[in-house]
Amino acid sequence: MAELQFAAAVAERSYEVAFEVAAGEVLAILGPNGAGKSTTLHVIAGLLQPDSGMVRVGGRTLTDTADGISVATHDRRVGLLLQDPLLFPHLSVQANVEFAPRSRGAGRAAARRSAASWLAEVGLTELADRKPDQLSGGQAQRAAIARALAAEPEVLLLDEPLSGLDVAVAASVRALLRRVSSQSGRATVLITHDLLDVLTLADRVMVLDDGRVAEVGAVGEVLAAPRSMFGARIAGVNVVRGEAAGPEALRAADGALWHGRHDVEPQEAGALVAVFSPAAVAVYRELPHGSPRNSVQIRVAELDADGARVRVRGQEQADGAPGLAADITAESAAGLRLAAGDDVWFTVKAQEVALHPAAR
């Protein structure tokens, strides 16, 4: 597969962005509404002509305003997957997926074989004859994924494809996209507001703000030390990285064992991330008897009061990730008489901790 090179300016939208995505890499684009995320995908897909700029995939130039090049959308070999599956309502699932290879010139038999292969890949073989209105939301989204991949795109664009799905379906689709992206070797651009998508799918993160690149870097680097307001906001949950230590546990870099729950089938080996809210954390001076399953000793780095809430932030984790945080009431903070440098215990119930496969 080929890398993606992108640079574009759209004066009307105060947009000027440039970046590259290596072959086989997943770049997650974050940012507030109106930051330029959809503009980026539309320029890559050929749905929007920039005032100036270029889009190249490997050795092919798709857009070059200086040379007057603008390849038509249907000839770009770019797959665009949106939140709405946009399946053709009058066609069966099989015919919907066959449409993709047929649209790029494949014969009937080849299109049928390709569709069957991708429907098997997404687990929809038995539903191939159904119409879209006979599918659940998750099944329709998997059909849309199969159609996008059956076109054999050189670049895959994902515009919040998991938004609006329930937890179980979103987890299933996320696992599928993670597997496909890791095996295909194509450049992938993912727009999302969900930290789990970033943690489980992306290699790098780019934050857009007001049509400009606010920051870009490896997932761990951006989440550990976000330089933009939006990056800091999306990194506001607690994230612990480690390796699977049994079907429902993670072993962190400092040796601490974290127990939690899986939204997909538990894995007993491989990299995991544990995610939980600061509001789910209780703080104690001494290790409490009969405490929740997860208890870790933390050295307080800072305290931040916001009205009736006090955020207690620990020192950075052993692997350099941001320190764990707990949100407690001002009354509790006063009773604990906390100060930077104090050693305290953070406890959180196992059912509040979500375990997810980590990105590559």
TrEMBL record:
Domain of life: Bacteria
One Pfam family here: TOBE
Keyword Membrane in annotation: yes
Taxonomic classification: Bacteria, Bacillati, Actinomycetota, Actinomycetes, Mycobacteriales
Coiled coil: none
InterPro entries the UniProt entry points to: AAA+_ATPase, ABC_transporter-like_ATP-bd, ABC_transporter-like_CS, Mo/tungstate-bd_C_term_dom, Molybdenum_import_ModC, Mop_domain, P-loop_NTPase, Transp-assoc_OB_typ1
The name this protein goes by in its record: ATP-binding cassette domain-containing protein
Cross-referenced Gene3D superfamilies: 2.40.50.100, P-loop containing nucleotide triphosphate hydrolases
Keyword Glycoprotein: no
